[in-house]
């Protein structure tokens, strides 16, 4: 049996479904399923492809499936026990010939499961919700342990789950112990987001925006700064000059964050969550060793464990890489970064480069391949051009090969192309890995991805049934704070509130806070083309000048704002993705995320009356398609 929610994930996939069907000649069930799926593939050739694998008789089928072990390649435990004809699985390609285990995407099931899937395929907008299938974790009301739930990690997801579980009557403890960065940086309760991620990043970004508003816009709106500043004979005011003071910004931002750290502790206490400022290590599935900052150790026991330890930045892997700092350190620099090299083209690297440059520091980004891998390529390239216009320099197709200390406490960086330069600060932002190294997962049989150390889980449940994971520590989870919070809350409701509703990780909005902000939801144009084919995708797009930029020549020299909508031509122009570059990107995109999750079509989007004059209305007034070849530059009101 395949859970309906698991089936729904495939029903809502934007790419064609590729189903492989294996069975034996003369089997009525195999014949019925191949006939059913074959008919559907004829009716919906862009949505379904079917590959048949017919075996001569039952012994040949069983030899292949059971004795030769093909079924062992299914990740699903039910699939590994499948013995009957037919057996059906989702695949990455429509490759014919002998079934390729490496091509398996996910097990679907046998005759009954496939018919159930086919019914859903014919009615993909059904709102019917069915319970998900989770393993029994052995939890009982009278379990005899110290706690019903121990949460390891005091970040956004861990705290959300702990508070929700406590609200539902569970006895909960939360262990949080911040291990210093390699540079010795430490912080308080709240995890990456509040201390060294979203919050300080956004505040520095806001500060950079205030500075740019003053310099680029103020005089055009008749605003003068300073005493006795008067317009000239042409009624023009002089340019506004500003100066950034890193220490002042750092002090005020850190004071605000410390106030949040305190509020989080108070909130845990109000919810009756036991807060333990101790390092947790799993000894077995129900026993956790906790150690305080003095090294004093003790054991606590629990029926269930939630791992929510998040991730830490990956170090630069070259000679002298230890001289670099990371995003864990940059917000705590005492005197500002000075001349800075940001290594990596991730959103973290580009966001840091953006606000560092805006505060007046010489800033360079070293890019190994492309900017913002995984995001829409057209939008990522526009961000790069905009950052260049803001003074950020880019070194393309290079990586550091050596870092070394030189005079004046600077760092000389030698690059893979043989060039070199000196910097005051080298900031590594080349990726992150889960902070699971010394958690004791090997003691409890929890499996992780060896590449990033993330916990492999299904519905947030690991292979050890009473141990769960949410947030950045879980394999396949978008590394976004709201995702961790929502997943933590919904897991707590399933564990202690009788809910059976899973977390939906599809079509999650996100925003990149570069100087030109970028927000998106759904598929990029590149991914849509790859999954559906160029002929089945249309893109509606437009460049425009936001009203708040319209008076300033300097603003316009940075380039335009941009919006585009990616649609599926084969499904009534269902919206697959929305992308926006411009002011207040996060605020613009949030509402559109709801529409995309509900399956909005392009006509429904453009039938919506926009709010004028706003940048958001550009999305609901799009009319120029890429296939038309018309100029996407906007004109008029």
What are the SSEs and their pairings?
Blueprint: H1 4-11, E1 17-24, H2 28-43, E2 48-55, H3 58-67, E3 87-91, E4 104-109, H4 111-122, E5 147-152, H5 156-167, E6 172-175, H6 191-196, H7 198-217, H8 246-270, E7 274-276, E8 279-284, E9 287-291, E10 297-307, E11 311-313, E12 325-326, E13 340-343, H9 347-358, E14 363-367, H10 377-389, E15 393-396, E16 400-405, E17 411-415, E18 420-423, E19 425-428, E20 432-434, E21 467-469, H11 481-496, E22 510-512, E23 518-522, H12 525-532, E24 537-544, H13 553-557, E25 561-568, E26 574-581, H14 585-597, H15 602-606, H16 617-620
Parallel strand pairs: 1-2, 5-6, 5-10, 6-7, 10-21, 12-19, 13-14, 13-19, 14-15
Antiparallel strand pairs: 1-3, 3-4, 8-9, 9-10, 11-20, 16-17, 17-18, 22-23, 23-26, 24-25, 25-26
Write down how many β-strands occur, each being a DSSP E stretch of 2 or more residues.
Answer: 26
Number of distinct helices = 16
The termini sit apart by 57 Å
Instruction: Name the structural class.
Output: alpha/beta
Main sheet overview:
7 strands, mixed
Strand content: 15-25%
Low-pLDDT runs of 5+ residues are: 1-14
| Helix fraction bin | 25-40%
* Overall 3D form: globular
Q: What's the alpha carbon Rg, rounded to whole Å? A: 27 Å
Average pLDDT score: 93
